[in-house]
């Protein structure tokens, strides 16, 4: 029993009903489900904004979906959703509201945190960002020597890097191609070196992105970038003001670093790092694509927010996708979830989702701090599909693991490609459709034999099939569609966290490594004795020092 009187997840009748149903359906076969219901292909679909979502190739029946929705109702997923949208402090371990949805609320909306409407502040920052972005794009905001800014380097890590870095790739066709935009995250000096080695400091703007402004990787890189700039511009400290801006919630630390808060774009503690990309953290993207396109993207987020908030359970896409993940993770023991975009522009999309999903739902205690007795978030992985087909798809098709997967594709190639390259799009999409077909329906031994395959190879060439996939198809990959896709996954992750009764909005698991790194560093540099260093790490540190000639 929970403190709030609710039964623990795995002791609820709805959970038992699903476990019983799993036994009943046993090794349910997609071939049989489709044979029994010719309308399934068109019927098991949803339209959300521009996203056509096909979930027909899942190991579910109407009964499964009904039981999953009953579980969601019993866990009051929609109640928690409403509390989130209302600004209640549902991030319990940090005592914070979870209001990334307010970042894309329309100007007239009212969303209160501690009795204060936060929407006017959101729009004030957006307007400042837009003004700044347009000044950089037009050349009005020049560097210290009067030269036009031609390079923008975002320095940040995790949520202060992955979102803008991903979106910059996604929306490249919408970017100002005259601008060079790069992203530095790794504390490995090679990252900053490679990002700046061919740039002219006089033409380079650094955006230091850090919610806390205490993250060691970001502050170290930003300090080195400052030296690089000053070395290149003759050491005049005044140059910093024209070449550094900050994105943060922490004005004190920004000032301490030496960036004027006039050059700081603010966000708030009710925006989680991994949910922050549509806040000021998106400034680099806004400079690249312009304020209007950025606002189109926010409109896309809002389409899915409104859908999630208002669509009934039977037609609610984030709810459905979240529940399908629960079905496989908790009742089929699936350990991972693949996201396989059939678009080169989405090459960093899965990496972005890894933080969104795994930092949110990689938890093993419930909201009251008790060990969970059920599986929580999956390992999320994947790269653009056609490349994956020639690498790891073998394991998905014929390995021993169940890997539910999302396939994301677009009807139209981007215009900029020109006729020859656009003509390749049908081939790309033929692969997209063929893969989900092969995964779902496989190839029986009879079909293999009918092709004249010698008997000793039949087993090797048989595809078991029955691998579940969701297909997400849109006309084109626009800024709005990107916003829609991200919001869809944000809310899917929310649904799963609500079902699993975990706090999806903290990330204590990343703390220990950070603390230990600070303790270990003096051992590497000075050979200092670090109390409590275990024998294995001690030996490794000694080896490291030997290899470095220390
Ligand atoms: O270490 C994890 C983390 O706290 C993420 O949650 C966050 O996105 C990232 O570090 C960067 O934090 P910040 O924006 O405060 O530099």
Automatic annotation (TrEMBL):
Its EC number is 5.3.1.9. The active site is at residues 359, 390, 514. InterPro entries: G6P_Isomerase, G6P_Isomerase_C, Phosphoglucose_isomerase_CS, SIS_dom_sf, SIS_PGI_1, SIS_PGI_2. It comes from the Bacteria. Pathway: Carbohydrate degradation; glycolysis; D-glyceraldehyde 3-phosphate and glycerone phosphate from D-glucose: step 2/4; Carbohydrate biosynthesis; gluconeogenesis. Its main location: cytoplasm. It catalyses: alpha-D-glucose 6-phosphate = beta-D-fructose 6-phosphate. It is found in: Cytoplasm. Keywords: Cytoplasm, Gluconeogenesis, Glycolysis, Isomerase. It holds the Pfam family PGI. GO terms for molecular function: glucose-6-phosphate isomerase activity. Catalyzes the reversible isomerization of glucose-6-phosphate to fructose-6-phosphate. Belongs to the GPI family. PANTHER family: GLUCOSE-6-PHOSPHATE ISOMERASE. This is Glucose-6-phosphate isomerase. It comes from Streptomyces galbus. The gene is pgi.
